[in-house]
Amino acid sequence: MEASSVLLALTNIYVAIFALFCFKLLIKVSLCVLTHFYIVRGNRKEAARIAEEIYGIVQGSWADRSPLHEAAFHGRLLTVKTLIAQGFNVNILTIDRVSPVHEACLGGHVSCAKVLLENGARVNVVTVDGITPLYNACRSGSVACVSMLLDYGANPELETQLASPLHEAVIRGYRECAEMLISYGADIDKELQKLVLRCT
């Protein structure tokens, strides 16, 4: 009798945990659908309000990302095109100066990055940390993104940048990205000098 009551109690606990998990999953899915609705409608304020209320995000962190940032980061090409057609600024920056092109390249979404660049996005925009879209493309190992950015005039040797795309490609073992950067004029010796200065 005691063993069956303990088993029943454990079963009830597992059922309660499973029900809680399903409830949280339902909330997450609902929020994703709601966020997508607000992204398509272009209601940035409402998306930021939801992020602040539900996730406890304060302004100046992830809440200052636009729907265009989100769509580019997740590779949602149709949403990117829709937002651009609705008049979203392709050069909108977060407080840390992150652009939608940064986000698309970090995810390796070459089609999203290309649409942004075709609509006037700046290719050599630099974040407060000195990160460029080219650096993010090298970080993700996307040879297609690196090639496309270089074709659009990305500079592999910006003076203001703290992080080097070539250095990132080599550290992560993306040989094709490194070779492409070198073929577009990235200076290997200059990179080695930066590396020596950082180590001392």
From TrEMBL:
UniProt ANK repeat ranges: 63-95, 96-128, 129-161, 161-193
UniProt keyword list: ANK repeat, Membrane, Repeat, Transmembrane, Transmembrane helix, Ubl conjugation pathway
Bilayer-crossing regions: 12-39
UniProt xrefs under SMART domains: ANK (SM00248)
InterPro entries: Ankyrin-SOCS_box_domain (IPR051573), Ankyrin_rpt (IPR002110), Ankyrin_rpt-contain_sf (IPR036770)
Pfam family, one: Ank
The protein, known as: Ankyrin repeat and SOCS box protein 11
PANTHER family: ANKYRIN REPEAT AND SOCS BOX PROTEIN 11, SOWAH (DROSOPHILA) HOMOLOG
Keyword Ion transport: no
Keyword Repeat attached: yes
Family as reported in the entry's similarity comment: Belongs to the ankyrin SOCS box (ASB) family.
Record organism: Staurois parvus
